Amino acid sequence: MATEGSKQPVNRLPDDSSSDAPLMGLENSGNTCSVNSVVRARWCVLPLLMLVALVVAAVLLPQAGSALHVGKQIGKTDPLYASWNFDSSCNRGFHHTDFKNANLRAAAKGLAPSRLRFGGSGNDYLHYQLGSGDECKGIVPPPPPHGQDACAFFTPGCLNASHWDDLYGLSVAAGAEFLFGVSFDLAAADKAGAAYKWNSANAMSLVEYAAAHNQTLWGFELGNEVNNNIHAGNPEIKPAMQAEAIVLLARLARKYFPDAKFVGPDTGYWDSASYLTGYFAGEVKNVLHAATNHVYNGFDKTNFNDPEQLDSELGQMAQFTELVRRASPTLELWAGEMGPAAGGNDGSCSGHPCGTFASAMWYADDMGLRAAHGYTQYQRQDLFGARYGLTQSVSGLSILGSDDAVVLTADYWVNFLWKRMIGSNVLNVTSPSVDVREYGFSGPPPSPHAVEACRSATQLVLVNLDLVADVTVQLAGAAGAHYTAFSLTPLSVNPTTSGGASLNGKQLPTLVDVTAGAPTFLEDVPGDAVTGLVQNGLTVPASGVTFVCY
Question: Given a cut of 50, is residue 93 above it in pLDDT?
Answer without folding.
Answer: yes
